[in-house]
Design goal:
It is a single chain. Helices cover 69% and strands 3% of the residues. By secondary structure, it is an all-alpha fold. The chain has one domain: MetI-like fold (Orthogonal Bundle). Helix 4 crosses helix 16 and helix 15 runs antiparallel to helix 16. The longest helix has 28 residues. The radius of gyration is 25 Å and the shape is globular. The N terminus is likely disordered. Its main location: membrane.
Length: 313
C-alpha cells in the first residue's frame, strides 16, 4: 500500500489499528479521565479572555467590553498584594519542605516491614483520612483545639498548664494548616511511592546482602534510586501548584485574628471575584497564578533534564 511503512510484513497503519482493537478495554478505561480533563480543564480555558474584559453576565463573553491589562494593573496595585503573595508562598514552602517528604519517609518505613498484614493495616489507616472532607477535618480540629473545652487544651489544663488559643493565634495558623495536610493526604502520597517500590527486583536486595550491604546501604543504593524518577516528577508537578494552597481548607480555618497570616489568593478571589461580583478580576488573578505555575514547571523540568532525569515531557 502506497505511503505505508512495512513492519514485519504488516503495514504500520494496520498494525496500529489492530493494537487499538486488541486493547480496547484499556482505552475505554481512559474515557472517564479524558472526559474529566476535557470538561473541567480544557473547555473552561475559553473563559481566560474574561481577564481582559469588564465581564458582564448580561452581555456575556462575546459582548463584554475589552479593557486589556486593566485588571492585572489593579491586582499589582492592590495594597495587600504582597501580603497575599507572602502568605501563599510561605504556606506552599512549608508544604514542600515538610509535607512533600513525609510520604516518602513513610513509604520507606513501610517498605522495611516484613509482616505483610501489619504493613497493609498501617497503610489503610493512614490512607482513610484522604476520603474525609475538609469540613469534617475543620470540625475535628475545632473539637481538639477549642480553647474552652477542646481535648488538647483540657489535657494541658489538667497537667497544670495554661490553655492555648491555637485557632486564633497567628503563630499557630500555618502549623495547623500544615498538620492538617499531613494528616489528611500523607497516605495518598505513600501509596504512589509504594507503587514505585513495588517494581524493584528483590534479587537486587539479595545480591546486596551477599555483598555485605546493610539496611542503610540498600536504602541508599537500591530503594532511593528506584523512587528517584517518581520523586522528581511529583516535585515538578508540585511546583506547578505553588500558588494553590487549597481554598476550602484555608477558608474554614480563617478568622479575623489570623487574617494577616492566613489570607491567600484563593480567599481574596472569593471575596473580590465571587462575593464582590468582580468576575474578570477573579479570572485575572487565576491567570496570574497559572502563568507563575507554568514558568515554575518549565524551569524545574529543564533543570531535571539537565540533571539527567526524564522530567514530565
Amino acid at each position: 500500500m502506497k505511503g505505508d511503512v512495512k513492519v514485519n510484513g504488516v503495514t504500520a497503519r494496520r498494525s496500529r489499528a489492530q493494537g487499538w482493537f486488541t486493547n480496547w478495554e484499556y482505552y475505554v478505561m481512559l474515557l472517564p479521565g479524558l472526559a474529566f480533563f476535557l470538561v473541567f480543564k480544557y473547555v473552561p480555558m475559553f473563559g481566560i479572555i474574561m481577564a481582559f474584559q469588564d465581564y458582564s453576565p448580561f452581555q456575556g463573553v462575546t459582548g463584554s467590553q475589552w479593557v486589556g491589562f486593566k485588571h492585572f494593573s489593579v491586582m499589582f496595585a492592590y495594597d495587600g498584594f504582597w501580603r497575599l503573595l507572602r502568605n501563599t508562598l510561605l504556606i506552599s514552602f512549608y508544604n514542600i519542605v515538610f509535607f512533600f517528604p513525609a510520604p516518602i519517609i513513610i513509604a520507606l518505613m513501610l517498605n522495611e516491614l516484613r509482616r505483610e498484614w501489619f504493613k497493609k493495616t498501617v497503610q489503610t489507616i493512614i490512607y482513610l483520612p484522604h476520603f474525609i472532607s475538609w469540613v469534617v477535618v475543620g470540625s475535628i480540629t475545632f473539637f481538639l483545639l477549642n480553647p474552652e473545652n477542646g481535648f488538647i487544651n483540657q489535657m494541658i489544663a489538667h497537667n497544670g498548664g495554661s490553655t492555648i488559643n491555637f485557632l486564633s493565634d497567628p503563630d499557630w495558623f500555618r502549623t495547623l494548616i500544615l498538620s492538617q495536610n499531613i494528616w489528611k493526604e500523607v497516605g495518598w502520597g505513600t501509596i504512589i511511592f509504594l507503587a514505585a517500590l513495588a517494581g524493584v527486583d528483590p534479587q537486587l536486595y539479595e545480591a546486596s546482602v551477599m555483598d555485605g550491604a546493610g539496611r542503610m546501604r540498600q536504602l541508599w543504593h537500591i530503594t532511593l534510586p528506584a523512587m528517584k524518577s517518581t520523586i522528581v516528577i511529583l516535585f515538578i508537578l508540585r511546583l506547578g501548584s505553588v500558588l494553590d494552597v487549597g481554598f476550602e481548607q484555608i477558608f474554614l480555618m480563617l478568622n479575623d485574628l489570623v487574617y494577616e497570616v492566613g489570607d491567600v489568593f484563593e480567599t481574596y478571589v472569593f471575596r473580590e471575584g465571587l462575593s464582590g461580583g468582580r468576575f474578570s478580576f477573579g479570572v485575572a488573578v487565576g491567570v496570574f497564578k497559572s502563568v507563575i505555575g507554568l514558568v515554575l514547571i518549565m524551569g524545574a523540568n529543564w533543570l531535571a533534564k539537565k540533571a539527567g532525569e526524564e522530567g514530565i515531557y
